[in-house]
Amino acid sequence: MSFRSGSTREHETSDQSTGRSASPPVPESSETEAEGLIFYHMDLYGSKDRFDIFPEELSGQGDRSRGDTRRESALSSEKFQRSQEAGYDLEREVAELAKMYGLDEDREKELELLGGHLEMVESRWPPAHTEKQQGLPGEASQDEDQSKAIAEDETESHIWSREGLSSSVMSDEWNSQAVSEEEEAANVFCSTCKMPIRAFDKLFGEHKDHEVAQLPSAVESEKEEIHKNMCKLEEQIAQMENFASHLEEIFITVEENFGRQEQNFEVHYNDAVQVLAQKYEEQLEALGEEKRQKLEALYGQLIHCGEHLDTCKELTDATQELYLENDKASFMKVKTFNWLEEFLKKEVDLKLSTLPDFEERVIDFSEVEQLMNSINTIPAPCAPVINPQAPNAATGTSLRVCWGLFSDDTVECYQLCYKPVSNETRNGEQAAPSPPIIKSKKIRSCENAALVCWESRDINPVDSYMVELSKLTDEENGNIITESIVGIPNCEVLIHLQPMQSYRICVRALNLGGSSERSEPVLIHTTGTYFCLNEDTAHPLLAILDDGFTIACDELENPECDLPVYDNSFTRCIGILGSLIPFPGKHYWEVEAEEDTEYRIGVAFENTPRHGYLGANNSSWCMRHIITPSRHKYEFLHSGMTPDIRITIPPRRIGILLDYENCRLSFFNAEIAQHLYTFTLHFQHYVHPCFALETPGILQIHTGIAIPPWTALP
Amino acid sequence: MALKQVSSNKCFEGFQKVFEHDSAELKCKMKFGIYLPPKAETGKCPVLYWLSGLTCTEQNFITKAGFHQAAAEHGLIVVAPDTSPRGCNIEGEDESWDFGTGAGFYVDATEDPWKTNYRMYSYIKDELPKLINANFPTDPERMSIFGHSMGGHGALILALKNPGKYKSVSAFAPICNPMQCQWGKKALGGYLGSDVSKWEAYDATQLVKSYPDSHLDILIDQGKDDQFLSAGQLLPDNFIAACTEQKIPVVFRLQQGYDHSYFFIATFINDHIKHHAKYLNA
């Protein structure tokens, strides 16, 4: 062994000396050494980030199994050395740190590597220390190889443990040092013995028949292996964590389910117990009843017996009396003999009328059994609650029913039962109402809706109204009701319709006595916007002509004259409001005016001041036409302000587009499709068309016009 | 004719480009700006021609007017040519800013030394549309025209002299009656000679009087605080009166507080683009 170690040492020395010459200049390393921290960075051996968490666990475990004993001895000798260096605190600190991070083996290796350098660094180290260091290789020479081999083996597993100490500056220098050193020290890996050896050993040592591979590549493959294993470990950890949290959830669910089942059972068992108690009571009562009957019967019999006895006794007495009669003739006369004979002929009923035994009563558990069997996991659900019938939820042949379930019960399906309610209440208690009359002139509609109102011409009370619609198609099924709206409380309704259609609408009144006949129908076309004029708002001097859509003013004198003024009518401005359906979307109408008519036309809020002028306040917007001596003047008024606009062709037919969606009110010369002006604003409320005359003249209003394409936003 | 692209900038998902070409009418190299909306990548688009005013080049409109968003939205190609031939080395062309370079007045000059090169009317009417239609995805049937100041004058006269060619016309502060204002007199005199009757053919107010049909929808915006309005260079009232007489539909808006600048143009350009889009996209 000594020979071997000697030769080894020599070889090493020579190796190291060669290595030394090939390695970076020593002063660098010695500088770094001087810091006293002999740690080197292991990052050349692969990813270290992953293994931060395992310094404690894996240090001192795993691959250590191999060659432990051999190492142990090396360690102990080392430690022995160290313990002797009591005075050198840093060393001890280092040793402690090393132990903590399982760096002992590495330390060995360092010392190994240092071996060759020790001569160099002698001057820097306290002599005593150096000597001891020097002593090491010799003493532990035998174990150098193995320990170094093991150290190398274990370097990978300790990579992470090095992390914490990798902040030292000299690491890079040491790396290159270390590499070069290692390559010379042991550069071949023996797969058979699973340890690094020197090439020399392969040729000449015990490994000469063994499989070998290049040390770097062996190292690489070893690293890969470990890397893979680490990955798998990580995966497992993630899985377990997921599973753990899942389990927690299940925990909670189990508790919940338990709670529900518990409740469920309680309810059911209570029911069962109740039923039993009930049965008991019933049977008991029946038993009591039976007893009573029996007793009664017996009592009756007893009475009867008593009576019989009395009778017998009387007879006996009578007979005895008779027997004592001395008069033989009268003795023979008395019919007493007959009595007795008759009496004795009668049968004596000595049978018991009733048995003392009570009948067998079978305790009927069937119901209870049923109950018990019905205790299953899912309780029957609570009854749903049907919503009251909403308007617009029925047609002539169908009905929409909605209900809600107000419990947490599990429901598989619902079962709807219905039956027609007969008209049996029509038994003269109350007469059905007469059909209402739809105010056809007051119908307001647009492309998508209609507002219909009617009046009830009945003294009979009315509970609600029902509207029936039929959409008119080209076929002859105009009488088929396509939709009906029930439960209307007032005399008006807003119905949603489809554009470009025609509908026939009628109304019925309903009360307890039943439903009225249908009213006269009205036709509604959803081709455009229809509105009517609100006569109540007309200024006294403004006349509405017969067609209902032409307004005229004859004279302007005394606009504030003493004609009757209604609360709602304009007082100064000779104007009138229309009644536009309060519905979003677009509305279009046209106004025809002669060239010499001065007017204001536009829209206004319902509550625009009746004492004001249209356009002069902030609740109205209008186009105003006046004629000056030189030209036609056009103003677009709101809050009394207007832009300065000249129009060369006085429009005779003005198109007005009210577009709630796009926030605009536009005016057009409808004859030439010329856009005149647009107010851009967001209407806060629904508005009504407004019209006013400033000179004697006529304005003709046209409604129900489909929105022309040239009014669209380009 | 070969087009050379001078610049290209992406704008509102379309492209603002500038091209240069050799003009046969003007006998010099001419540049023009052209905005191609995103729609032009997949289909043919109508074309809106913009004519700029005195001292402008093809750059002013494309950089200052802020029209790209509206043009992109409505899918319109917008072409902005230069205001006169350049680099012709004509004596006196750079003497004043309101005559010669940058002041073509959209006429075909008949006087020397201008008559060879200063043919902006024919350039805008024929050569440029032909060039544009041949090189870009245009719908040759759908064309409209508008402009500012001298360009407004150009737009009006081109529309009035070519009924049916343009679907719509509009203008910002146009020189409506050049025969009656200082600018017009100088330019028309210089390009066309002293025979005033020859000027009528290039005066919108005059042309309206003999305009054959009324199928034009004219929108005019005029800043109320425009110095040139008060200086009597623009004379919109004359034009309006003539249109009223002839029943040509015009909506003329006098905009409170606005002047003659591109700030004014930028404020109302969207309304004008919408006005044209209504007819071009119909």
Q: What features would you highlight for this structure?
A:
heterodimer, A: 714 residues, alpha+beta, 7-stranded antiparallel sheet, 6-stranded antiparallel sheet, 15 helices, 38% helix, 20% strand, disordered N terminus, B: 282 residues, alpha/beta, 9-stranded mixed sheet, 10 helices, 9 strands, 23% strand, globular, B30.2/SPRY (chain A), Ig-like_fold (chain A), Fibronectin type III and SPRY domain containing 2 (chain A)
What would your notes on this structure say?
Chain A: Keywords: Coiled coil. Chain A: This is Fibronectin type III and SPRY domain containing 2. The complex is a heterodimer of chains A (714) and B (282). Chain A is α+β, with helices and mostly antiparallel strands. Chain A is built from 15 helices and 28 strands. In chain A, a hairpin with a 3-residue loop joins strand 7 and strand 8. The two termini of chain A are 104 Å apart. Chain B has ten helices and nine strands. Chain B has a nine-stranded mixed β-sheet with strand order 1-2-3-5-4-6-7-8-9, with helices on both faces. The two termini of chain B are 31 Å apart. Classes of the chains: A alpha+beta (714), B alpha/beta (282). At the A-B interface, strand 23 and strand 26 of A face helix 9, strand 9 and helix 10 of B. Strand 23 of chain A pairs antiparallel with strand 9 of chain B, so a sheet runs across the interface.
How many distinct helices of chain B? 10
Helix fraction of chain B, binned, reads 25-40%
Major pleated sheet of chain A: 7 strands, antiparallel
Question: Helix/strand/pairing class of chain B, anyone?
Answer: alpha/beta
Instruction: Please trace the helix and strand order of chain B, writing H or E for each element.
Output: EEEEHHEHEHEHHHEHHEH
| H/I helix tally of chain A | 15
Identify the most extensive interface between protein chains. A-B, 19 and 23 residues
For the largest beta sheet of chain A, what order do the strands appear in spatially? Answer: 16-17-28-19-24-25-26
**What is the terminal separation of chain B in angstroms?**
31 Å
Count of DSSP strands of chain A: 28
Radius of gyration of chain A: 59 Å
Total strands of chain B: the figure is 9
